[in-house]
Design a protein that fits this description.
The chain has 757 residues and is an alpha/beta fold. The strands form seven sheets. A seven-stranded mixed sheet has the order 15-14-25-24-23-16-17. It has a five-stranded mixed sheet with strand order 2-1-5-3-4, covered by helices on one side. The longest helix has 15 residues, at 295-309. The radius of gyration is 28 Å and the shape is globular.
Length: 757
């Protein structure tokens, strides 16, 4: 535990940790200090000079963001002297700032507005003309009003420190300083974190712009529906429509702070999309069309067909809530009387969790780890918050990062050591890490044995946390062996933690809920009829539904899976339901209803329960999501004793108790690895090309494809002729330019902007 010291603030004495930042201590104890450039999770800037305080025995006012607390420090945060200095700074900030609060999207949430309003009035003695610049677009989803900028540089530091992209930066000098991009266009991951941390209306959400005012929105705390990181979000809804998603900490203080990625922040267009399935649909004959029907008719038909045909298999999507997946399993075991159930994930997490020899690492553990070992995976594209924590661990705290990958991923540029292995040779690396390296294995891997020795040396010198992260492209045997071998690297001064890299928001929860599950191919092979919650993650798998006697799918949209369905039942989106997801750190997180279910849609667990009831089995949920979770806690050992009230504090996520199996016999898996490694070629076969930013993150899926801007990102994010016009008006969704747009315009040609009739 850190040493505690005493500081006096405005005459009151407080205890705090030695070395704590003074501005944080003041704010935490109720003495609010205005600031713009300071951000707790970013490197110091100290440029706005708003956080001035008087410290005893110091001759001048001091910026509290640069001061660390020492024992006996006496601080004054409020006085006429301090207010005069802060008012003067406010006056300078407003010198070129347009007074357009009534039409600014950030009005009501603007930090500059709040500070100025707190004082009641600010003297404005500057009579010179303001620097006027037009609004423009920096990308399909980031809009920019440069005249509102106060040059706090939060956005540039976020882009550098959080994302490692440097896509946005300050240009020019002095009064002419502007925040801009290279070439005027953002070619980055489009995370939107620059928008999130901007204290004014300078950077704006291009998908939400001018829709509503912030105070008109109901803010509902929920969990991201895309990534397995379990990022906490605030859904802004009004009148049954989701207008925006943010992570602003004024609404939710989750594990991710204000960090979100492009999908979590902008990919919510599917919720209110007109293509949503609105009513139950029945295909009355094979090859026929799906015809709208009532819920009563659809449920009766499904129940009758399942009873008549028998041999019912159950498949759950890893995108569903724990409640939905658990209910589908109960349907299989208690209604269909079968163990024929599966999760349609792209890879099976069971080998990892059944062989864990060390606990799961939280994202905070990753952020403050001393050494990170990443084997496979590409977190920057698929687990973006995990990647952010890794970058900050290295850049801010000097952590060692070792990356083992067959592809030179961008994260490798920040690594202490990058071990570039041959394509498809992860099995050989797992075998070496679990046992010992030799020349034969090194040849299979395409590396020198000295590289492996250096890895072992770094691990051996680690004092603190060692986090081992395992990607999904490894074979099941390799994952099992690596998870089982982790414990051998622990010592008295080194704690070893594991972190899987699953692909979907509830991959971990689905694995927990469906203990004893079979592979998807096995379930499809052994089933005459199927109940499918959500669509298959591999569209090619849908073809395996051909020839099945009866297929029922619970879905939001028509997909490759519903093409083979005899009945399609409209499911509600994550914004319309209550439930839970479990993230890749084992945290159980709430999903909360933000709007009423659209059209005739219903929660997945409720649909499954209705079918079960029609078949004579009542699960006893009484149409309550909390009752479903109680049943989970009573049945799944890792969730024992949990209830919804335990999950109410997003700042203290609950980690479930996954079993740690130390010293488990893995001889079978190791023999399988040896057999696999024997077949590997000794010839070097390396992938030398670094993938572009967004090659996985920006791909168009059933859900992201309902937000038009994603189509432009997926088609190369083309730079338009005019930055003053929305790219959606200048390009078709396939990335081809529209010919009907007027000629390109410059910054001074706004009046000439027109569209051809």
């Amino acid at each position: 535990m850190s040493e505690l010291i005493k500081v006096t603030i405005n005459g009151q004495e407080f205890e705090t940790e030695k070395g704590a930042r003074l501005i944080d201590v003041c704010n935490e104890n109720g003495f609010g200090i205005p600031s713009f450039c300071y951000y707790k999770d970013l490197a110091l800037q100290a440029s706005c000079r708003m956080c001035l305080v008087r410290i005893e025995k110091m001759p001048k006012l001091q910026p509290s963001c640069t001061i660390t607390c020492t024992d006996g420090m006496v601080v004054t945060t409020q006085s006429d002297e301090i207010e005069k200095a802060q008012r003067a700074m406010g006056e300078f900030l407003l010198a070129n700032h347009p007074l357009d609060c009534p039409v600014c999207d950030r009005g009501g949430e603007c930090e500059l507005q709040e500070v100025i309003f707190d004082w009641g009035d600010v003297e404005q003695r500057f009579i010179e003309n303001k620097n006027v610049q037009p609004e423009k677009y920096l990308s399909p989803i980031v809009a920019n009003d440069p005249q509102r900028c106060i040059v706090c540089k939060r956005c540039t530091r976020v882009c550098d420190e959080w994302m490692g992209e440097d896509a946005i930066e300050a240009g020019n000098r002095g009064a002419n300083t502007v925040i801009g991009t290279y070439g005027g266009w953002l070619n980055c991951s489009q995370c939107g974190n620059c928008i999130e941390v901007c204290p004014t209306g300078t950077l704006l959400d291009g998908t939400y712009r001018h829709e509503t005012r912030p105070w008109e929105l109901d803010q509902i705390v929920s969990t991201d529906v895309y990534s397995s990181d379990g990022m906490q979000i605030s859904i802004g809804a009004r009148g049954g429509k989701v207008h925006r998603i943010v992570a602003r900490d004024r609404y939710v203080n989750g594990l991710n702070g204000e960090f979100l990625d492009v999908k979590a922040r902008f990919g919510h267009g599917f919720i209110n999309h007109p293509d949503r399935i609105k009513t139950p649909l029945i295909r009355y004959k094979k090859g026929g069309k799906l015809i709208p029907a009532t819920w009563d008719d659809a449920i009766r038909l499904v129940a009758a067909k399942f009873k008549e045909i028998g041999g019912v298999g159950v498949v759950a999507s890893p995108r569903l809530t724990n409640e939905a997946v658990f209910t589908l399993k109960r349907f299989a075991t208690e209604v269909a009387g079968t163990g024929n159930y599966a999760v349609s994930d792209r890879y099976d997490l069971a080998p990892f969790f059944e062989n864990m020899s060390a606990p799961l690492a939280t994202h905070r553990d990753i952020r403050y780890a001393k050494t990170l070992l990443l084997i496979g995976g590409e977190p920057e594209e698929e687990q973006t918050f995990t990647a952010k924590q890794m970058r900050q661990a290295v850049r801010n705290d000097g952590a060692k990062m070792i990356i083992v990958n067959e592809t030179p991923i961008r994260l490798a540029q920040l690594a202490t050591q990058f071990i570039h292995i041959n394509r498809g040779s992860y099995d050989a690396f797992a075998l070496a890490l679990a046992g010992s390296m030799d020349d034969s294995l090194a040849k299979k891997l395409g590396i020198e044995t000295s590289e492996f020795d250096e890895l072992l040396k770094t691990i051996g010198e680690t004092e603190g946390d060692l986090v081992i992260m395992i990607g999904g492209e490894l074979s099941t045997d390799a994952q099992a062996v690596l998870a089982g071998a982790a414990a051998k690297f622990a010592s008295d001064n080194r704690r070893v933690l594991l972190h899987p890299l699953p692909l979907y928001n509830n991959s971990v929860g689905a694995n927990d809920m469906m203990a004893g599950k079979k592979s998807l191919s096995e379930v499809l092979k052994n089933s005459k009829a199927l109940l499918i919650g959500g669509s298959f993650q591999n569209e090619e798998d849908a073809q395996l539904l051909q020839g099945k006697d009866f297929v029922v799918v619970q879905e939001l949209f028509e997909t490759a899976t519903t093409e083979y369905a005899d009945v399609v039942l409209p499911a509600s989106s994550f914004a319309e339901i209550d439930g839970t997801y479990t993230n890749n750190a084992g945290n159980v997180q709430r999903v909360r209803q933000a709007i009423e279910p659209l059209h005739q849609s219903r929660s997945d667990w409720m649909i499954t329960s209705m079918i079960a009831r029609e078949m004579g089995v009542d699960f006893g949920y009484n149409f309550s999501a909390s009752m479903v979770f109680k049943a989970i806690a009573d049945s799944v050992a890792a969730y024992e004793g949990l209830r919804y009230p335990h999950l109410k504090d997003e700042s203290r996520p609950v980690q479930v108790k996954h079993a740690v199996a130390a010293n488990k016999d893995q001889s079978k898996e190791i023999e399988a690895l040896k057999a696999s490694v024997e077949k590997l070629s000794d010839e070097a076969n390396k992938n030398t090309e670094t993938p572009p930013i967004g090659h996985k993150l920006h791909r168009v899926t059933t859900l992201t494809g309902k937000t038009p801007q994603f189509h432009l990102l997926a088609n190369g994010n083309p730079k338009p002729k005019s930055l003053l016009v929305s790219p959606l008006l200048q390009f078709d969704l396939d990335g081809t330019p529209r010919d009907e747009l007027a000629e390109a315009v410059g910054v001074g040609d706004r009046v000439n902007l027109k569209r051809d009739e």
